[in-house]
From TrEMBL:
<keyword id="KW-1133">Transmembrane helix</keyword>
<keyword id="KW-0472">Membrane</keyword>
<feature type="transmembrane region" description="Helical">
    <location>
        <begin position="20"/>
        <end position="38"/>
    </location>
</feature>
<feature type="transmembrane region" description="Helical">
    <location>
        <begin position="58"/>
        <end position="80"/>
    </location>
</feature>
<protein>
    <recommendedName>
        <fullName>ABC transporter permease</fullName>
    </recommendedName>
</protein>
<feature type="transmembrane region" description="Helical">
    <location>
        <begin position="156"/>
        <end position="172"/>
    </location>
</feature>
<keyword id="KW-0812">Transmembrane</keyword>
<feature type="transmembrane region" description="Helical">
    <location>
        <begin position="106"/>
        <end position="136"/>
    </location>
</feature>
Amino acid sequence: MLRIWRSEMERIWNRKSTLLLYIAYILIVVVIICSHKVTGTKVLRFGEGTVAVNNLNLPWLMMSEVALFLITAILPILYVDQLSGDLYSGAYRLYMLRPYRRFQFWLAKLLALSASTGIFMGTSLLIGVLTGWLFFPHSSTFFKYGSSDASPPSDAILYILVFYLVLTLVCFKSRELL
């Protein structure tokens, strides 16, 4: 099963369309971070005010905008391209000649797409954290979304990780809705 998954990962990441989507995704992340750097603030979506962007809140503020592109455009293109590309190119028939069950092939494909989604999310988390610490003002307090109570920086780490975990699960679920 591990060999099938590894083969699927290679197949996904050897396609030019995947690499172009990945580069476009990184560019979107960088542009949104640059816009936060230029403005220094972020207007919250539902009229809840404006927040000053700092090193502790940049990763989730940035991802709240990137998620729109990720869930509505990038991931559906990636999933549909991978699933229909194998059927259209005839590669799926070649897979069936191998001594594995159809269920194993589809499970490996879905796990490889899930891992690719994790790579996209992990990349944005890494870029957000690094640019936050390098280029944005450092803060000693952290305000959670919708809260006016200040939290210590240690809460920011857990908050960001939970935020990205929930968003990753939403991305996995959006894949099932395609």
